[in-house]
Amino acid sequence: xxxxxxxxxxxxxxxxxxxxxxxxxxxxxxxxxxxxxxxxxxxxxxxxxxxxxxxxxxxxxxxxxxxxxxxxxxxxxxxxxxxxxxxxxxxxxxxxxxxxxxxxxxxxxxxxxxxxxxxxxxxxxxxxxxxxxxxxxxxxxxxxxxxxxxxxxxxxxxxxxxxxxxxxxxxxxxxxxxxxxxxxxxxxxxxxxxxxxxxxxxxxxxxxxxxxxxxxxxxxxxxxxxxxxxxxxxxxxxxxxxxxxxxxxxxxxxxxxxxxxxxxxxxxxxxxxxxxxxxxxxxxxxxxxxxxxxxxxxxxxxxxxxx
Length: 307
Fold this sequence. Notes:
This protein is an alpha/beta fold.
């Protein structure tokens, strides 16, 4: 998101309710604490040891598992049903289209008619796919998208922006060992994995990344962005919502995991990828009216399949 003047981001609290935060983005750095409420957001905010320890304490407090084995199994086996219910309520009006994509991931920008194939995991209702289609003038662009929510895929297909000539979306549970895909292995240029792994049980991550590796062409890229450890969303969970280490269930039944850079590095390099970027995007967002400080942490990474 760096380089953008402003954006509106939609997120959810631990109850699953929408939290809309107006943020001012750009290369803006806080050098004097007295200036903290002069702007809506500050980039690359560093944490001191005291803040790190306080965050760890909150995570330890809210990390006690109080669910029965039956409940844990329910949230795993019925994950798609909880997301179907989410989209039944919110349709395509909850998440904002990700117009910041092209700043953070210029690899998605196509200025000529060179053939480019993009595959998004967990495409939801099209908040990534539609900006790609809208901004591209490349007639050779082909975008694939999958989601395990049948409702989300139907909403996406029903949109007037959906173009079946350049786009193909389908139902797929990427947590399964075998993927049934409408394209050949080693055929995708770019795979987009944005706020999707966090919704899946961590035990499934290795299998997912190995399947991603199979899909990409040699030299192809994975573009990754997801929740980071000690993000505001994690610290807001109350005790009793933990499903495991750094893994929680919201009030609406959907789940979320919070990553470290090291976890992402081990995950992708363990599957044979070459690291091109891996950074913690730490941002301080400010509510100037209420004098509130909100610390956000996201992990952003790029990994290449060797040529």
